[in-house]
């Protein structure tokens, strides 16, 4: 066991030193970590882009005193199912903007009350 050669998990070069060493240097360690987490990062960036777009759409209707038609939200690019918080039946939040369902097809858009 003592003479058994160990190899870097990233580049395959022979390791020397500690018996639990997995990478030959910091570059290989970082490259391995980035590769493992690359797809997760891509997925998170895509989800955050959709959430930001949803917030931007809601912001357009924020200070309207009349309800917003559901189809109008969809037409402007709002994607259903992408929210940051479920408050209750018919009440959702996208970051700091709330949307409350008034009827099957109409919503009121409100700014989240600030916590003081």
Description of the molecule:
The protein is an alpha+beta fold and 116 residues long. The chain has one domain. The chain is 35% helix and 18% strand. The protein is built from two helices and five strands; from the N terminus they run αβαββββ. A five-stranded antiparallel sheet has the order 1-5-4-3-2. The mean pLDDT is 90.
Question: Briefly, what is this?
Answer:
The chain has two helices and five strands, in the order αβαββββ. The chain has 116 residues and is an alpha+beta fold.
Instruction: From the alpha carbons, calculate the radius of gyration and give it in angstroms.
Output: 25 Å
On the 0 to 100 scale, the average pLDDT is 90
Alpha-beta classification:
alpha+beta
Q: Proportion of β residues?
A: 15-25%
């Amino acid at each position: 066991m003592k003479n058994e050669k160990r190899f870097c998990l990233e580049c395959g070069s022979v390791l020397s030193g500690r018996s639990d060493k997995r990478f030959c240097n910091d570059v290989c360690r970082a490259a391995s970590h980035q590769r493992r987490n690359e797809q997760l990062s891509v997925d998170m960036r895509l989800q955050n882009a959709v959430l930001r777009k949803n917030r931007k759409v809601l912001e357009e209707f924020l200070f309207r005193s009349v309800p917003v038609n559901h189809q109008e939200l969809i037409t402007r690019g709002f994607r259903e199912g992408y929210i940051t918080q479920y408050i209750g039946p018919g009440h959702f939040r996208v970051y700091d903007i709330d949307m409350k369902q008034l009827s099957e097809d109409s919503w009121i858009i409100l700014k989240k009350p600030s916590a003081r």
